[in-house]
Amino acid sequence: MTQPSSARMDMSNRAGGLGIELLNQFNYKVWRTCIESYLVGEDLWDVVDGNDITSPEAEATANDEIRSSDAVKKWKRLNAKAEFALKRSISHSLFDHIIGCKSAHEIWKALDKLLNKGNEPPESQLAEPTLTQERQEEKRPSTLKVTKDLV
């Protein structure tokens, strides 16, 4: 039995096996939320968001060689899975922007830099307000003062 053409067309805009719409220039915010949930659910988020971006190879000492070898294999496997999920979830028109990235974290940052047009602050700004943001808040008139003046 063949699928109706509308179903085939719908599937062509979906990430293979992930069930989310392919990332394009217009759906970054929705794509980011969906792919982040997928990566967290697959235990791949740490290699993407920067918590575990360094391969353990550089940190190994002679005494740690056997354990390090296993850690390196694990990191490479997780990074490759995360890279694959990210690459399979973006449109072909965006692929050239990430082709030179060497890790899932680099892909994530490249896509954020390219497509996050003020929709969401970068992750580094979510934790603490910047000095500029604090100064802007100080310059805003107080809501209480405005309400008081109106009465």
Automatic annotation (TrEMBL):
Compositional bias per record (Basic and acidic residues), positions renumbered to this chain: 134-151
Pfam families: Retrotran_gag_2
Region feature (Disordered): 118-151
PANTHER family: CCHC-TYPE DOMAIN-CONTAINING PROTEIN, PTHR47481
Identification of the protein by name: Uncharacterized protein
Origin species: Punica granatum (Pomegranate)
